[in-house]
Amino acid sequence: MIELELIAVRVDLPGNTPVLVLREIAGAGRFLPIFIGGPEASAISFALDGIVPPRPMTHDLFRTVIEDLGAELTKVTITAVDAGTFYAEMALQVGELEKNISARPSDAVALAARTGCPIWVDPSVLDEAGILPDNDAPHDEISGDVVEQFRDFIDSVNPEDFV
To answer: How many Cα neighbours within 13 Å face the side chain of 57?
Structure first.
Protein backbone atom coordinates (compact mmCIF):
# COMPACT_ATOMS: atom_id res chain seq x y z
CA MET A 1 0.00 0.00 0.00
CA ILE A 2 1.06 3.56 -0.71
CA GLU A 3 0.27 6.42 1.65
CA LEU A 4 -1.45 9.51 0.25
CA GLU A 5 -2.03 13.02 1.51
CA LEU A 6 -5.12 15.10 0.93
CA ILE A 7 -4.11 18.13 -1.13
CA ALA A 8 -7.33 19.89 -2.12
CA VAL A 9 -10.76 19.79 -3.66
CA ARG A 10 -11.02 21.66 -6.94
CA VAL A 11 -13.73 22.18 -9.54
CA ASP A 12 -13.29 21.04 -13.14
CA LEU A 13 -14.47 24.22 -14.86
CA PRO A 14 -15.71 22.83 -18.18
CA GLY A 15 -17.93 20.28 -16.46
CA ASN A 16 -18.27 22.10 -13.12
CA THR A 17 -17.42 18.76 -11.46
CA PRO A 18 -15.60 18.65 -8.10
CA VAL A 19 -12.31 16.75 -8.05
CA LEU A 20 -10.67 15.31 -4.95
CA VAL A 21 -6.88 15.69 -5.23
CA LEU A 22 -4.66 13.24 -3.33
CA ARG A 23 -0.88 12.93 -3.63
CA GLU A 24 1.55 10.11 -3.02
CA ILE A 25 3.70 11.00 0.01
CA ALA A 26 6.80 9.03 -1.00
CA GLY A 27 8.00 7.94 -4.41
CA ALA A 28 7.28 10.04 -7.47
CA GLY A 29 4.64 12.18 -5.75
CA ARG A 30 1.92 11.15 -8.20
CA PHE A 31 -1.45 12.86 -7.95
CA LEU A 32 -4.63 10.83 -7.73
CA PRO A 33 -7.62 12.85 -8.99
CA ILE A 34 -11.07 11.48 -8.20
CA PHE A 35 -14.27 13.11 -9.48
CA ILE A 36 -16.74 13.43 -6.58
CA GLY A 37 -20.14 14.91 -5.81
CA GLY A 38 -20.83 18.44 -4.65
CA PRO A 39 -21.94 17.64 -1.09
CA GLU A 40 -18.86 15.47 -0.50
CA ALA A 41 -16.62 18.20 -1.96
CA SER A 42 -18.14 20.69 0.48
CA ALA A 43 -17.68 18.29 3.39
CA ILE A 44 -14.01 17.73 2.56
CA SER A 45 -13.38 21.44 1.96
CA PHE A 46 -14.97 22.31 5.31
CA ALA A 47 -12.67 19.84 7.06
CA LEU A 48 -9.59 21.15 5.21
CA ASP A 49 -10.46 24.74 6.11
CA GLY A 50 -11.33 23.91 9.72
CA ILE A 51 -14.90 25.13 9.31
CA VAL A 52 -17.24 23.82 11.99
CA PRO A 53 -20.87 24.15 10.92
CA PRO A 54 -23.43 25.17 13.55
CA ARG A 55 -25.10 21.76 13.22
CA PRO A 56 -23.19 18.57 12.38
CA MET A 57 -23.01 17.54 8.75
CA THR A 58 -23.39 13.85 7.90
CA HIS A 59 -19.65 13.14 8.12
CA ASP A 60 -19.40 14.97 11.47
CA LEU A 61 -22.32 12.91 12.75
CA PHE A 62 -20.73 9.68 11.58
CA ARG A 63 -17.43 10.61 13.27
CA THR A 64 -19.31 11.28 16.51
CA VAL A 65 -21.16 7.96 16.29
CA ILE A 66 -17.88 6.09 15.72
CA GLU A 67 -16.26 7.79 18.72
CA ASP A 68 -19.30 7.41 21.00
CA LEU A 69 -19.39 3.68 20.25
CA GLY A 70 -15.77 3.39 21.37
CA ALA A 71 -14.44 2.73 17.89
CA GLU A 72 -11.66 4.44 15.97
CA LEU A 73 -11.20 5.04 12.25
CA THR A 74 -7.63 3.80 11.82
CA LYS A 75 -7.17 4.11 8.06
CA VAL A 76 -8.86 4.71 4.74
CA THR A 77 -7.75 2.68 1.73
CA ILE A 78 -8.64 3.33 -1.90
CA THR A 79 -8.77 -0.27 -3.03
CA ALA A 80 -9.72 -0.32 -6.70
CA VAL A 81 -10.76 1.59 -9.78
CA ASP A 82 -13.05 -0.03 -12.35
CA ALA A 83 -14.29 1.80 -15.43
CA GLY A 84 -13.56 5.15 -13.77
CA THR A 85 -15.35 4.25 -10.53
CA PHE A 86 -13.14 4.25 -7.43
CA TYR A 87 -13.71 2.00 -4.42
CA ALA A 88 -12.54 2.43 -0.84
CA GLU A 89 -12.61 0.78 2.56
CA MET A 90 -12.57 2.28 6.02
CA ALA A 91 -10.82 0.32 8.78
CA LEU A 92 -12.56 0.65 12.13
CA GLN A 93 -10.94 -0.59 15.31
CA VAL A 94 -13.44 -1.70 17.94
CA GLY A 95 -11.54 -3.10 20.89
CA GLU A 96 -9.52 -6.03 19.54
CA LEU A 97 -11.66 -6.28 16.38
CA GLU A 98 -10.75 -4.52 13.14
CA LYS A 99 -13.66 -4.19 10.74
CA ASN A 100 -13.33 -3.05 7.12
CA ILE A 101 -16.33 -1.22 5.72
CA SER A 102 -16.84 -0.52 2.03
CA ALA A 103 -17.28 3.17 1.23
CA ARG A 104 -17.09 5.72 -1.53
CA PRO A 105 -13.65 7.36 -1.52
CA SER A 106 -15.20 10.79 -1.06
CA ASP A 107 -17.04 9.76 2.11
CA ALA A 108 -14.02 7.88 3.46
CA VAL A 109 -11.70 10.85 2.80
CA ALA A 110 -14.21 13.26 4.38
CA LEU A 111 -14.03 11.15 7.56
CA ALA A 112 -10.24 10.86 7.34
CA ALA A 113 -9.99 14.65 7.11
CA ARG A 114 -12.02 14.92 10.32
CA THR A 115 -10.17 12.25 12.27
CA GLY A 116 -6.62 12.63 10.98
CA CYS A 117 -6.34 8.96 10.05
CA PRO A 118 -3.98 8.02 7.21
CA ILE A 119 -5.16 7.53 3.63
CA TRP A 120 -3.70 4.66 1.60
CA VAL A 121 -4.08 3.43 -1.96
CA ASP A 122 -3.51 0.08 -3.60
CA PRO A 123 -0.47 0.45 -5.91
CA SER A 124 -2.47 -0.81 -8.90
CA VAL A 125 -4.91 2.10 -8.50
CA LEU A 126 -2.11 4.65 -8.49
CA ASP A 127 -0.48 2.92 -11.46
CA GLU A 128 -3.72 3.12 -13.42
CA ALA A 129 -5.09 6.52 -12.41
CA GLY A 130 -2.11 8.41 -10.96
CA ILE A 131 -0.65 11.45 -12.69
CA LEU A 132 3.00 12.35 -12.49
CA PRO A 133 3.79 15.88 -11.28
CA ASP A 134 5.88 18.38 -13.18
CA ASN A 135 9.47 17.24 -12.58
CA ASP A 136 10.69 20.84 -12.19
CA ALA A 137 8.79 21.30 -8.91
CA PRO A 138 10.31 20.05 -5.63
CA HIS A 139 8.57 16.89 -4.34
CA ASP A 140 7.72 18.26 -0.93
CA GLU A 141 6.16 21.45 -2.27
CA ILE A 142 2.48 21.79 -1.38
CA SER A 143 2.28 25.43 -2.42
CA GLY A 144 0.04 27.09 -4.95
CA ASP A 145 2.43 26.00 -7.72
CA VAL A 146 1.47 22.35 -7.27
CA VAL A 147 -2.20 23.19 -7.09
CA GLU A 148 -1.85 25.43 -10.15
CA GLN A 149 -0.22 22.60 -12.10
CA PHE A 150 -3.10 20.37 -11.17
CA ARG A 151 -5.62 23.05 -12.17
CA ASP A 152 -3.96 23.13 -15.59
CA PHE A 153 -4.43 19.38 -15.81
CA ILE A 154 -8.06 19.60 -14.65
CA ASP A 155 -8.79 22.28 -17.26
CA SER A 156 -7.68 19.88 -20.00
CA VAL A 157 -9.22 16.59 -18.79
CA ASN A 158 -12.73 15.18 -19.06
CA PRO A 159 -14.37 12.56 -16.86
CA GLU A 160 -14.47 10.27 -19.92
CA ASP A 161 -10.64 10.22 -19.89
CA PHE A 162 -10.82 7.96 -16.81
CA VAL A 163 -13.20 5.42 -18.29
So the answer is: 17
pLDDT tens digit string along 29-86?
999 999 999 999 999 999 998 888 888 888 999 999 999 999 999 999 999 999 999 9
Domain spans in the chain, listed from the N-terminal domain onward: 2-162
Collapsing DSSP states into helix, strand and coil, what is residue 114? helix
The listed CATH number (3.10.690.10, 3.40.640.10, 1.20.1250.20, 3.90.1150.10) that belongs to domain 2-162: 3.10.690.10
CB contact at 8 A, 162 and 129: yes
Confidence (pLDDT) at 124: 97
Where does the chain show beta strands of DSSP type E?
A: 2-12, 17-24, 31-35, 71-82, 85-94, 97-103, 119-121
